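Entry, Tuesday afternoon. Goal for today is a structural model of the target with adenosine-5'-triphosphate bound, before we commit to ordering more compound. Inputs were pasted exactly as handed over by J.K., no edits. I checked the ligand SMILES twice against the vendor sheet because last time a stereocentre got dropped in transcription.
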Amino acid sequence: MHPVASAAETRQVKKSFVTGEVTVEAVRGVTVAIHQGELTAIVGPSGCGKSSLLSMLGAIDTPTSGQVLVGGVDVATLNDYDRTLLRRRQIGFVFQAFNLMPTLSALENAALPLELDGLSQREAHERARAGLEQVGLGKRVDHLPSMLSGGEQQRVAVARALVTNPTLLLADEPTGNLDTAGGEQVMKLLRELVGKFGQTVVMVTHDSEIAAAADRVLRMRDGLIAHDHRPSAVVESTPVLTPAKPATAPKPTPHPSKHKTSKRRK
Ligand SMILES: Nc1ncnc2c1ncn2[C@@H]1O[C@H](COP(=O)(O)OP(=O)(O)OP(=O)(O)O)[C@@H](O)[C@H]1O
Ligand SMILES: [Mg+2]
């Protein structure tokens, strides 16, 4: 199975920030399609434009020029109200700082986007409960954020981002504030969401090990995508277990004694 449809795409997207006399070109013309049902990681050095690109994919920020399409809809053609609805219903955002309301329980936190969208409290809570079960926190619904581990808090944030059934789940350094175990927990969850439920996820990360678990890695540099590759595809083309004989018919060698040590070339 190879997903082809794009959940979101950018076309020659640029973003400049003007502060006083300084203009920073954060994103300098990025054209990329985010495939449905994939986990895409965006990596690259600090300041290369990762968060800026993610914000534009999530219709949180508007490009200086170029187009952003979410679910096939050009975001620029929407009025403020429709853009708000798009953000609220089609995009789930998870931030590095979990941004949970400290005085609300896990359930109330996860239900917030639905209540904001006009659902009754009962219905919102019902769906939030299902969301928390999905992220493995069905037994923690009444806990306040302070009673949860970092990894658990971030899973509540993921549940909150998922309750609206978004087309796109965007996460900016979701494991950045977590210890290794917590980070792995969240990464495993994101992988499962993609594998089991076909969720589309775009995640910014500094952690190359975490990025290696993605379906696709976009490496940014100076506001551009410098590399676009699939970590698993790289592993497949470089087998760890080398077959005794090359797959293609070996050339007859004039020195059979050297055969064992001869290097295969691609
Ligand atoms: N609101 C803003 N006003 C002015 N400059 C900004 C603004 N937001 C981002 N920038 C600048 O744009 C560039 C890209 O920022 P961005 O936040 O996208 O980088 P990043 O790759 O996410 O970095 P990090 O890994 O540190 O989070 C940076 O040089 C930053 O200083
Ligand atoms: Mg950033």
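The mean pLDDT is 87.
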